Here is the input.
Amino acid sequence: MSFNALWIVLAALLVVTLWLFLRKPKPKPRSNAPRTVSPVSRPNAKGAESAELPVFESETVAAPVEARRPLPDELRGFHLIMQSEMDDAARERIKSICTNMPEPHPVQRQLANGLDTPDDLMEAVASDAGLTASILRTVNSAAFSLASPITSVQHAITYLGVSVVKGLVAQAAVAEQVDDVTPSQQAALSRIWKSACTASALAQMLGQELGVERPSVLATKALFFNLGDVALAMSIEESAAWYKDGVSIVERVAAQQQACSANAAIVGSMLADLWHLPQDIVDAIESGLLPLVTTAADHPMQGDARRDNVLVYLAGRIGDRVTYRGLRDIAELNVVDSEESGLFYLPEHLNGAGLGRIPQLLQDPAFRRKANRALATLNG
Here is the structure.
């Protein structure tokens, strides 16, 4: 091979080599952004050996636990006394309060056992002229401020509904047998019954909307839930202060426990038992304050019993809000994230009892109109 030919070959090889080098893809510049680790390939917490490998929580097993809201001041240090915790002295005192109550009017047992239809209720009341007169006086008083007078029990039932009239019958039945209370005690009793009537009416409405098999049973439980308050208001003169405007459920129960080492739930259940009311009424009263102080995880009931307990408690808080704070629009009741002590645990109880749609129901225009009509009537 000649010298010139050799140079030609070498030049060709150089060109090919240069061409191949230029064709090689350049590496992409390394990003300074943090590397995202796939949830599937994230290192196990145990395998994290340096500060550069954070400890990860499983995203697929459990969602992060939401921090619990701070406890309202009223609930700090508050303890709800249960009947099983009472000493002998307290038990004897409550027994004395119950035995000193007047014998129940015959209609009280009928109310506790039913009278859920207009005909049954009208028949029970019509047989007692004094009871009828008392009911008509109440519904035609300034407390109701009706546009036109109610002239009969049937008219009252048609206009006000069975639940409200049952409450008025219960109130009148007690009033017939009580004539030695002070004006302040009478004012307290009127408020207690107003709260009970409201609670009963709302329990009936909520039960119907939620498809509860017998909403009238809920209404009856809500009606008798305040029975212990009635007994305490009649037996302890200074108790009138517990039922004034603005007094919260925690303040009231704390005052009851301070005065007699018991509360309205204990007194009411013992009185209902003494009066031989149905056992489900006795149990509903005794357990009625559980949602005030327990978390949903600690609630001892299950199924329908738990649902009824939470619904009756909610109805009672609505009754109290109407009576002691003048609630006129059900949509203004905050049951989602209220800082009010009586409603603090309610959101988790609603979810735990399968009642999570109640916050939306209270805002529903149709339900709101129906509930507000009842509130307007009971507020006068």
